Amino acid sequence: MSGKGLHVHLDPVGGAAGDMFIAAMLHARPDLTARVLADVALVLPVEVGRAELTEHVASGIMSRQFKLVLATGGTAARHGADTTYKAMRALLEAAPLSQGTAEAACDILHRIAEAEAQVHDIPIDRVHFHEIADWDALMDVTAAGSICAALEGASFSLAPLPLGGGLVDTAHGKLPVPAPATALILQGYDWHDDGIAGERVTPTGAAILAHVTGSTHGTRPPGRLSATGSGAGTRVMKGLPNILRVTMFDTAQSGVLQDQLVQLACDIDDMTGEELGAATDALRADAGVVDAILLTAQGKKSRPVVRMELLVRPDHADAVAARVFDLTSTLGLRRTVVDRLILPRNTEIAPDGQRRKRSRRPAGHDTLKVESDDLDASVTLAARRMAARAGEMED
């Protein structure tokens, strides 16, 4: 169940919480329900209860709710050492969850722990959860991780978040909304005030949103609408449905896939050719860099400059930007989110043993191209071209 070619847009109409995200996603993709419930059952003790997905009407909008149904005598509360970040992470890592679930769930949990560590100025391994300590919070983290793993490769975008207002009860007393951890996790995101007070985005909801959107949370690519879903919260709001809505789009139209990258660009006029070459080679070797080019131009004061342009995977953008500042003399970077159209392709072995890339064109035919490195043994240009033509012939 790959998410390649899938784009998910999130509209936090009423707000965003872990259970709202899960319910909305399973409303739009009911085929994931069995996987998600099975993963949750592996971390949720039978004596505590079970996860349940139900139909729910929120202000007249048909939606879904995801909740913990307690067993007789069961309690959602957890106390003591079991509620530390280390213990909760260890529980996720030890459970025999579906492929990718533990990794995604642990990343979500880590975002919350990292924010809490910063709020309280303590090492992350000393973080002791309070508001998200109970079984239903661990259930939400696991279920969200299961969905994210099942849809690996999908892209996400997010509409502005409702700010809310007033105070929220915490283990440390009443604190302003958004809660400190929520505000830290969602720094850089767009917010709006719709005049409705209360906590509108929870720390778990914030961590899930940050996990799925990365640094491209404001961009929604074109595509064909394929599914919608709504996840309802427990609070009833006057004049506003308390839902998180998802809309899913197929961006693989006419055989072309679409994804998003971050472009980093700068102009450099005070580095030697050797220095630029070394910096560019080091950046090309970075796992987050998809492509790197150097262009010559004329800059300020009629100086010759070299423009460096990098295409970077969104979740690596900050780290690559730091690398550019360390490896070059530039004092600033231009950062742009760009859409990329990609033809489906795969690598195969030609009859002569060379690797070649097969691409499917929108018109329906395939093209073949031998990997350049496999032609390096050719002693002349003519031999290289002959070897390429041989490798690009159909079997």
TrEMBL record:
Signal peptide location: none
Organism: Pseudosulfitobacter pseudonitzschiae
Key words, A-Z: Nickel, Plasmid
Tagged with keyword RNA-binding: no
Lineage top rank: taxon: Bacteria
Residue span of region Disordered: 351-371
Organism lineage: Bacteria, Pseudomonadati, Pseudomonadota, Alphaproteobacteria, Rhodobacterales
Designated name of the protein: LarC family nickel insertion protein
